[in-house]
Design brief:
The chain is globular. The chain is an alpha+beta fold. A ten-stranded antiparallel β-sheet has the order 4-5-6-3-9-12-11-10-8-7, with helices on both faces. The chain has a two-stranded antiparallel ribbon with strand order 1-2. It has four helices and twelve strands; from the N terminus they run ββαββββββαββββαα. The protein has a single domain (5-289), classed as Thiol Ester Dehydrase, Chain A (Roll). Residues 274-286 have low confidence and may be disordered.
C-alpha cells in the first residue's frame, strides 16, 4: 500500500484520492514522452465509486486509454478509464491531452499568506485528511470567493516506487478550498463528482512545488437541479499560474460537520479579510476567472 493512503481514510477505509487518480491518467498520457510537456489538459472528468482498500497490500487497477476527441484540431487526445476488476462502473473517466504554449501569469501576489485570517484547526478535523493531504495553511474571504494558502513542510508524496507525474497537492489545495466554502455554506462535507476541465500548467508538472502557492475559487450561481459548481486557479507568489480549474462539481458525502466547528468556520468567513491588501492581491487571480 502506498504510504499516503492511510492519510486518506473515509468511513474506516483508505481511499485513493481523486487527485492521485488524475496522476495515473497523466502517467498514461505521457508514457513514452521524453520531454516535459508545456502543459496537460484534462476534460470531462467524471468521478465514480471510490477506490477503497480493505486490507494492506497491493490492489489491481486497470486503466484503458483510447483515442478521444481533442479540444483543438491537430492535437491527439486520450480517453482514459480507471477501473477495478469485476467493478461495473469506472472509478474515473477523463479526456487528456498535451497542450503547448507558455503558462499564463498574473501580477505578483506578494506575501499574502499572513493576510488569511483562518487556520487549519478549522479544517482538520472535520476534514478526514491525514498529514500528507493537510494542504491548507490558512484561508479566508476574497472579494468574490475564497482563498487558501499551501501548507509548508508537507510529507513527501510519491507512489511506492515512482514519483508522481503531476503535483497533485496543488489541485488538492483548490478542491479543499471549495470544500471549506461548502461546509461554511451548508455544514456538510462534499467530495468530487466531476470537473469540466483541469489545466496543469508547466509549474504543476514534474518535481513537487517546494514554495508557497495560493488557491482562489469562485462559486457559480446555484441551480436547483445541480450541486454547486466552482472555478478557480492556483498560483505562485511570482504570478506563475500552476493549475486552472473550470466547472468543479461536488456531491454530498453524507457527513455533517460538528455544529460547533461549522459555526466557528461560518463566523470566520463572515469577517472581511484581515488586511485590505488581500483583496487587491487576489483580485488579479479572480479577474482571470470571470
Amino acid at each position: 500500500m502506498d504510504t499516503f493512503l492511510p492519510d486518506h481514510v473515509v468511513d474506516g477505509s483508505p481511499v485513493l484520492p481523486t487527485v492521485m487518480q488524475l496522476d495515473l491518467v497523466a502517467r498514461g498520457l505521457l508514457a513514452g514522452t521524453a520531454e516535459r510537456p508545456a502543459g496537460v489538459l484534462m476534460r470531462g472528468i467524471r468521478v465514480g465509486p471510490p477506490v477503497r482498500f480493505t486490507l494492506p497490500g497491493p490492489r489491481q487497477l486497470d486503466m484503458a486509454c483510447t483515442p478521444g476527441p481533442s479540444a483543438s484540431p491537430g492535437r491527439p487526445a486520450l480517453r482514459c478509464e480507471l477501473r477495478s476488476p469485476g467493478c461495473d462502473a469506472p472509478h474515473l473517466v477523463a479526456l487528456a491531452e498535451i497542450v503547448p504554449g507558455p503558462a499564463p501569469r498574473t501580477p505578483a501576489l506578494g506575501e499574502w499568506s499572513d493576510d488569511l485570517p483562518c487556520g487549519p484547526d478549522l479544517v482538520y478535523p472535520p476534514f478526514f485528511h491525514g498529514p500528507a493531504f493537510q494542504v491548507v495553511a490558512s484561508f479566508g474571504r476574497t472579494q468574490t470567493g475564497l482563498g487558501a494558502s499551501l501548507a509548508a513542510g508537507l510529507p513527501p508524496l510519491s507512489w511506492e516506487r515512482e514519483p508522481t507525474v503531476l503535483q497533485p497537492r496543488l489541485l488538492e489545495l483548490l478542491l479543499q478550498c471549495c470544500g471549506i466554502y461548502e461546509m461554511a455554506s451548508t455544514g456538510r462535507m462534499m467530495v468530487p463528482a466531476g470537473i469540466e476541465a483541469v489545466h496543469w500548467h508547466p509549474g504543476a508538472l514534474g518535481t513537487e512545488h517546494a514554495g508557497s502557492a495560493m488557491a482562489v475559487i469562485q462559486a457559480r450561481p446555484v441551480r436547483p437541479d445541480r450541486g454547486r459548481i466552482f472555478d478557480g486557479q492556483v498560483a505562485a507568489p511570482s504570478g506563475a499560474v500552476l493549475v486552472t480549474v473550470t466547472g468543479y462539481q461536488v456531491t454530498d458525502l453524507g457527513r455533517v460537520a460538528d455544529p460547533v466547528t461549522a459555526a466557528r468556520l461560518t463566523r470566520c468567513l463572515a469577517a472581511p479579510p484581515a488586511r485590505p491588501a488581500l483583496a487587491s492581491r487576489t483580485s488579479h487571480l479572480e479577474g482571470a476567472l470571470r
